Amino acid sequence: MADGEPRQSMPAQDGARLHRITLRETGESYACAGDRSLLKAMVALGRRGIPSGCHGGGCGVCKIRVLEGSVRCEAMSRSHVSVEEQATGYALACRAYPLSDVVLEVVGGMRKGLTRRYGLL
Amino acid sequence: MGVMRIGHINLRVLDMQAALRHYRDVLGMVPTDEDHKGNVYLKCWDEWDKYSVMLSPADRAGMNHVAYKVERDSDLDDIKARIRDYGREVEELAPGELPYCGRALRFKMPSGHLMYLYADKEFVGTSVGTLNPDPWPDDIRGAGAHWLDHVLLLCELNPEAGVNKVVENETFFRDVLGFRLTEQLMAGPDKSVKALAFMTVSIKPHDIAFVGGPCNGLHHCSFFLEDWGDVLRAADVMGKNRVKMDVTPQRHGITRGKTIYFFDPSGNRNETFAGLGYAAYPDMPVITWTDDQIGSAIFYHTGEIHEAFTAVYTEGY
Ligand code: FES
Fold it and tell me: B215 with B272, same domain?
């Protein structure tokens, strides 16, 4: 079931097939069902590695690049992943659903402004 | 009197059906119209004008503009002159150019955010009417938000380069639009850098707020709930609908508001804000927070700001 849709108790069908997601830098891996975003599955398991932000494809902090395997992507803000980038494997982890086992690298990060030392953003 | 209150926000969304599920079923807004460009208009049950949220289909998230309502049509002429005298550009739009509104002013805030002012918007009426009304309607959905309350805009702040759009916006809103400062956060080694400005034009703790950041952006738009019980119930509604929550129910030091931060399906941050905190009469002294207490200023219970709250936002233009 996608984020933003009501919880259901029905067992998921095909989408429930688990795929292995591996973060290249750390070697860390976790299981993600085909109907769960790469980001949601990671946070739900209490794992870390991909920065977690808006979960809506709007903020860009969860940007990744798929190195092996394939994903299906829902709408992503073009400010953060252009059409060309998407064609070369870039994606937002909160909008990407695995179609196979995936090896990825983390590209995004929490933006730290120059002004952090001024106590806020 | 001039500017009276917030009127609406125009948000860009990546998936209109998902956005509609969110603003209608989770926040509890009522869709009132859709135009040929695919823009969808919604209002809260306690609002009387046609819309307070305009959703525009787009391929990037963020805010297109925010609009405030002035009391009298002639206020638009006065304010137009004041903006020009201040040395900034302003355009006047014919009735209808701003959807379902009368003539309008369009200008950029010093921070670059696009703003409109209008005096008239198509009237729809609240869901309970004005004759011997019930306190709430029977067909409330989701969180049942009462009204769009305020926006918090991210404004460029780079003291080393002499840039502080928080202060530039504050000055413009005070001198030109008649807003008053209610609370501020002072930062830096000698607490001389204004990093947050909360401003009102009513007696609410804020009708708009500005926060310093690396660039121009939309931090959140906020919807009013009556009390703490409503906030907790709203969080349940969000849990049921798998809405991504950024901050679960909590109290702000600044404004004393009771809050939840969460995201719409395109990643635009929303807030539900309960309680009026205090009455910000024009003679109320300005409240100052210092950045060594910033945790409590923002999240009074935990006294801690988590990284995503400050680093995650969408575009403000
Ligand atoms: S978490 Fe914001 S774009 Fe993925």
Answer: yes
One domain for residues B165 and B311: yes
Residue with tokens 């807030």: B271
Residue with tokens 């995936």: A102
Residues B151 and B61 in one domain: no
- The string of pLDDT tens digits covering residues B183-193 is 999 999 899 99
Q: Are residues B32 and B176 in the same domain?
A: no
Q: Is the pLDDT of residue B72 over 90?
A: yes
pLDDT, mean of residues A76-105 = 97
Residue B96 and residue B171 share a domain: no
Q: How far is the CA of A58 from the centre of ligand 1 (A)?
A: 6
Between B159 and B40, residue with greater pLDDT: B40
Note whether B238 and B171 are same-domain residues.
Answer: yes
Pairwise CB contact (< 8 Å): A56 & B160: no
- Answer yes or no: is pLDDT of B60 > 90: yes
In this structure, are B173 and B37 located in the same domain? Answer: no
Do B59 and B151 lie in one domain? The reply is no
CB contact under 8 A, A120 and B315: no
The pLDDT tens digits of the residues spanning B204-236 come to 999 999 999 999 999 999 999 999 999 999 999
Nearest chain B residue (CA) to A111: B311
Give residues 225 to 244 of B whose Cβ lies within 8 Å of A: 240-244
pLDDT tens for each residue of B136-162: 999 999 999 999 999 999 999 999 899
What ipTM, to 2 d.p.? 0.91
Ligand 1 closest atom vs CA A80: 3
**Which atom of ligand 1 is closest in space to residue A54's alpha carbon?**
2
Domain that holds residue B43: 3-118
Query: Residue B69 is part of a domain; what is its CATH number?
Result: 3.10.180.10
Residues of B involved in catalysis = 150, 206, 220, 252, 261, 271
User: Would you place residue A1 in the very low, low, confident or very high pLDDT band (cuts 50, 70, 90)?
Assistant: very low
